[in-house]
Design brief:
exonuclease activity (chains A, B, C, D, E, F); 5-stranded mixed β-barrel; alpha+beta; 41% helix; elongated; homohexamer; 5 strands; 2 domains; Hypothetical protein af1432; 12 helices; OB fold (Dihydrolipoamide Acetyltransferase, E2P)
Chain lengths: 317, 317, 317, 317, 317, 317
């Protein structure tokens, strides 16, 4: 079945969808209605449920699965779903929430294998031990959390997928620039955003925890590294180097790093992070655009719009 | 005996002084000389030692005490000391380095008493316990370190003196604004710069440690609070609140706080810190200026120059 | 009777309210209606008056008092008032506009007494005379105007209340820092925003006057001080000092002060002004928030949201 | 006789010069000397007076005229004057300070005539009367002061010359854009920098007065206009308009105008001021440069360097 | 017949209008309607067409002419047109699109004559030849295009009108400042925005071309000058000077000029461009405002609002 | 023979060196001397030549080779060369300037081979043809010029070496991110700084040409691509894409790109350029630093200083 975002105006719809958001409204004549945003793996679409009473409001809350029938129509240049029928899914329907969530394109097990391999390649035993300890401690969340709540890699397992992409880049850069210390760079990449598992509330529909709000994932992770070193009775420069890699990876004070990178590997970590995040943002909007046209504006890329060259037609896709 | 910075051109000099800085130079005709900066508690003064050989260079290094004779003369609007005689002090002279260092105007014991009193006034047992633990742990350095390497309170015991000044302000503000939580504010003030005892190398001629450079006193202290809580087996919101107070006390990301204040008490801590630091900077330059004139420019106060009103003559001094 | 903002959905309403704002609308089917914002001392609430003709529009204008009956309902997470009955108040009802306006928590007479006391404490006769003259000249407006049209102290007598709060802080600071000149600081505080009585149109629903728009309260007050000195035939440094205190109290050119503070007292005036304004803003949103939750975002505080610690429950409230 | 800045290395010198600046120095071997900067109408040149005793220091102070003999030599790419003889000028020499100062290229009387003509053309009697009153009050200084202490029009009568240049531009602009109010624009130009006669200490070697430092020429002039209106018993919008023209003429808060231009004529005044000042700055450096080369960098023009095209050779000069 | 924007609430309307914009809407009860923006030479006005079917949507698209009847009414402080009748214009009506478009107040032929005269006055044959060649090449579009898609001179022939206004200013400035090279300045003005004929899609309802988006009018024109020089076999400094005039005319890198002005004439070109654009923006809003009131805010003028003095009543209009 | 920058104080020197810079000075007693900066492939060192007459000044100019004898001494923490003997090199000495210049570590022929291979891999014939044409046109300079006059790759053949480094990175990124168009990215990298061959004066001691100053290498290259397309009679989107790649490669208007990247490949080109330039800057200062210490500050890296971890000792070097 085609994803909901690939349908065209006039197409009929009859399928299960996840309610991502549900908001109550009142028409100017006083009639209540619900604005529902449905989601499947391809993205989301809006619909109105007219004459919705208090009971409907309870039945159709966010995170619940429904069976809908209706058709796609175009309203102000955007597709909407005009509902004919809607009912909550029951256990008998045999559908689960995971079927509707976007997920990294590589299975968790495979990502864990690759990660293990990168850790295995480290030569410095202190760095290796600290990294392995922290990965083990947070393994479950690390493999399930998104890399961010919006902008880039905001999907299930997005964090691990982002980290592995960065490790692949790091591998080729350390080959091209032998002066780079592979252990520091690999460990820095693996740990740089691990604090997100404490900053965010969960793998799905993540919001900020109190710790996340008041300290942020960078400070949380710097603390974690310090405590891990204490527990493992590790001493020496490596602990401080890794704390600095995490602390400085946003690159500048105004972007959230109280110290700028002062290690060659910390500077390069910042570039790799940036490059992979931006590629992810650009790919998303360019994939949704026809050759010869401009994408929608992307707020996190200085509100720029990107052009998809016509030559892509023959060569890239 | 009058401080060295209060002498006028023509005044004779014969006394002990501490060498703050010693730099070798060569005249354009190739003759070596030393530029010496002497210091006593009132401040410092420059002198030249002509025809200084390698031996002189070794004898007259920074941190050594000397006996000098000569006179004050004015060179390009600034006082200098023209040397007639100089010799290193010997143990027989019975002078010690402490006699030449600027020190907080309140003795350490008295400051410790006042601090204890403020901690005693706290009602929240968790905050009180954590604060007491950390003060005890760093007590010696906390009472001896400067508050900064330059700009404000850059003298022996400057850190404790700055903290107590801030506590006095906090006391009157909590009386005027009863909505402020006294425990949070007092503890935040006491801990806010305590990381400096790890960031700086010592109480005198302080430079930055490796930890200080790569993590900074804010991150160091946030970690310390976390570890102290672990050791004391303390849990609950208070730990996070205190970590946030320290983390946010520079007020803005670009000033080194990765999170801005999100507690009323954190916001007020930032103001009190600023106010006391600026008072200290202004007092120094205004004290050196005659009524009816402008002070030198102060770099840390946006390079401003301050006017000392003539009316100060009768009223303030 | 409970303030309108403290009622919950379902509560019946039958009371007098002030119309703060009245805006005409038309439904998409062409029927006219009025959106009314009602106010009492606790704040404001919105209501719709359906099928409102031209006559209703005239009857229910801003600044008029009405008697309403209806009930509270919740619309998109915000309380609204569903009107059943509404009529204009008549003289026979015996209600006056003052009953519906937020006002400083201290009576005008008491504030005037405190102000007089502060002026009485001044030792410099010139500063005292100038300050007394200007307070006398603008006494009525000074005691009634708000301190601003929005953001902080935006209520009846807000200006005087803000000034007195600042004077109380100044009193404790001059005790802690004896180098501060009390006369300059007190007079600077009293005069700093007095130009608002010319900048704003009145004590209630204040807007900007033409002078306010084109010159601003700072320039207006600097001129006033100059003219007052001329009238009183006062000469000497004090006039210039006070003009500078007012001129520089926003702290920086980009914040509206063409000269930055160049007097120690001017710098401190700027901090005190800031501190009291920010306390007022934070108190308002924190008072409306439950312990353990974040406040709404405050635009004038860099759009920050503040956390209200759970420990407040037992200790502060 | 050729101006001192037009001589070449090797040229003999025997003439009167004004000492612009005199600074005492000491060679590294302890011998005192004087660094003298001489000036005539074409600019200035440096010289050293070796073995200069205390008496020489007194004889050769700034603002005194001397007779010198020597020759030009080149030192690090800049011309210097190598002194053979020097003596103070005596009354018998019959030279006066005015002969050595750069002055506007139009005589004061002629500038006053032109100014009178522009005032005469005004149709609004209030604006005309206020302008005439203020010009009369400050006439002497207005015709003698420089427009600034550095950057542009920093010569005797520079203020009046700058104002007249601006009035000429205003005349052609009001012809091209009839919507501009000629009276407001002319009066705004005449008054915009008149506060400089209070801000600066005098027509020659001007420094800032205390009023100038603490209030600035903009605030000083806004006050003056207000007081003039009071004295002349003038009321009405025109006073406020002129105050705003002066207040806003720097264009932005960060450039010293607490209010931005809110009158069409105030906006245009800002542009004309800018244009004439920048022309003056560029002309100076380009005049000193050969066609086909770049000028020195100009700090007040964002540190830019300007190219003088080769085509200028035949066409412009 | 009076322009549509000069009518008052209650005035009847019966005339031809151009549809500038047409947007489909749906009422909350599901009924479709059209929001139409009509335009004539005086500006535009909004109207609602209720119960509009798919056929109406096709009939009443942007750029089509209609005959309407109805009346003006005021909705939320803005005039709207309440439609009674509407029908598409037919060829028999004899109306053409040009009658509804705002156009420069000077005919194209006259502007071309003036332009030819300015080119004729140039003395440098290279500059003259290059300028004439490029004007000839783009003559048709140059005389028809707007100067911008919004903000200033956004009307038919706005580009040529803006250029001629600038040339008139340049003529008086070169008379006042003889050091300015008239040929460079005139040619720079004529060419500075000529790249807009490639950047924009057409004279009416202009949007950006692909070249316009990816390179911009400045780079496009710099290239054009280079190619024209090649075709005409012109060599020498003049080509580079003109390319620099165009390249630098936005004044700063952040405003789109990769190099700041480094020629006196380039600096002045930037000021003249700015001055004429701002006059055009201010005149528009001030013309729509009554004396004694403030204009609406103008986004492109730092969101300022301008005051129209009362004295304008007698003198200017 | 060891490079001049690796010698220690006390080491004797007797070798050929290139004079990089020669500046005349005069001692305070009037004796002329020369400050010479000598260079070999390892870097440079300063020396003084006392009592240097006009003849010496001519003999020892920049770009001439000399034979020197003397020894290294330390002056204010920096090594200097104390000269005992100096004479100009003669043809008989058989030394050439190339022996003293830093050069890319890969021979030009090899770099050309690699470049040819990258061009060969392109699939789009238009991009390939344009790139090949431009490389051929500028081949000699492209292989010899530095990438910049300072900051990074400022050595002979630095431009080609930087481009090849970037191509290697691009090769691995296009493997990791298949959505990237290899042809556009390779061609963009090859052309992005080719304009430097017109912007700079030569391969050694490069300064800016007039074209370089007034237009800059970006605009120069955009023009070149346009003209090459004309000569080759190439049309189509590719020309515009490549012009945009070059135009936007500085990333932001304030960094010299009038348009920001609007192609995915243009964005990535900007990152790769940045990454390789920064690696080069960091490697240089870190190579000169001992493990466990901080490097000197690097102005082009926000004036940061980098830490060289102690663990480098065993692992990296």
């Amino acid at each position: 079945m085609k994803g909901i975002t690939f349908l065209k105006a006039g197409d009929p719809v009859e399928q299960y969808l996840l309610i991502k958001q549900s908001t109550k409204g009142v028409t100017t004549t006083g009639k209540p209605f619900l604005t529902l945003i449905f989601q499947d793996r391809s993205g989301d679409i809006e619909a109105k449920l007219w004459d919705a009473g208090d009971e409907d409001e309870k039945k159709y809350q966010a995170q619940s699965i429904v069976k809908v029938a209706g058709e796609i129509h175009n309203y102000r240049g955007k597709n909407q779903l005009r509902l004919r029928q809607i009912r909550p899914a029951t256990p008998a329907d045999g559908v689960s929430i995971g079927e509707f969530l976007e997920t990294a394109p590589v299975p968790k097990e495979e990502m864990m294998d690759q990660l293990t391999q990168y850790i295995f390649e480290m030569k410095n035993p202190t760095i290796q031990r600290l990294t392995r300890h922290l990965v083990k401690k947070h393994q479950k969340e690390f493999l399930e959390f998104p890399a961010a709540t919006k902008n880039h890699h905001e999907f299930v397992s997005g964090l691990a997928f982002h980290v592995l992409s960065m490790l692949h880049i790091a591998k080729s850069l350390t080959a091209l620039y032998p002066s780079l210390n592979k252990d520091l760079l690999y460990a820095g990449i693996i740990l740089h955003d691990m604090g997100k598992v404490e900053e965010l509330s969960g793998a799905v529909s993540a919001s900020y925890t109190l710790e996340g709000n008041l300290l942020g994932h960078i400070s949380l992770m710097v603390n974690e590294i310090g405590q891990a070193a204490k527990e493992l009775e590790i001493e020496g420069e490596e602990v401080l180097m890794l704390q600095h890699m995490v602390l400085s990876h946003h690159g500048k004070a105004e972007w959230g790093s109280p110290k700028p990178p002062m290690l060659r590997e910390a500077e390069i970590l910042h570039y790799i992070d940036n490059l992979d995040a931006k590629m992810n943002m650009m790919d998303r909007v360019i994939n949704r655009t026809k050759p010869g046209e401009f994408t929608e504006r992307v707020f996190a890329l200085e509100n720029r719009s990107f052009y998809k060259p016509q030559m892509y037609e023959e060569e890239n896709e």
